[in-house]
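1st attempt posting a full record on here, be nice pls
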Amino acid sequence: MTFTKEMKEKAKKAASAEELLEMAKAEGVELSASDAEMYYNFLHGSRELTDEELSQVAGGKGNDPKPNPVPKYKVGQTVEYTFQSTFSILKGTIIDIEGYSPYDGWKYRIHFTQRTCYHKDYPETRPYDSINVYCLDKNPDAKVY
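the predicted structure (as tokens):
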């Protein structure tokens, strides 16, 4: 069913979620009690703020981490990145720093030049040539030296 502008205006005048539910029934609109409560709170902005939202409004920082102004690693450093699902270790060099993600940390462009398979049945080390971007700061599978 399409809600008309008139129906929305009428819904805004409801004094309670129960009244909104009665209005919906009178218009032939199927609406559960919980949906009526949610829509009423949406229309009237009476939803309580969570502690996190309240902290942010009061000048707190919430849970958003602040960016680290200095990258943890530098161009030219060696990276060993372990891919446990394929029993592989890629070795390469950081060639560029792409930017910062507040949740993952710095993004590094890495030129991988060697792949080592450490699976017991297929152990081998061979040349590899791939350039990828990874967030290394919080990744336990990455070793940088």
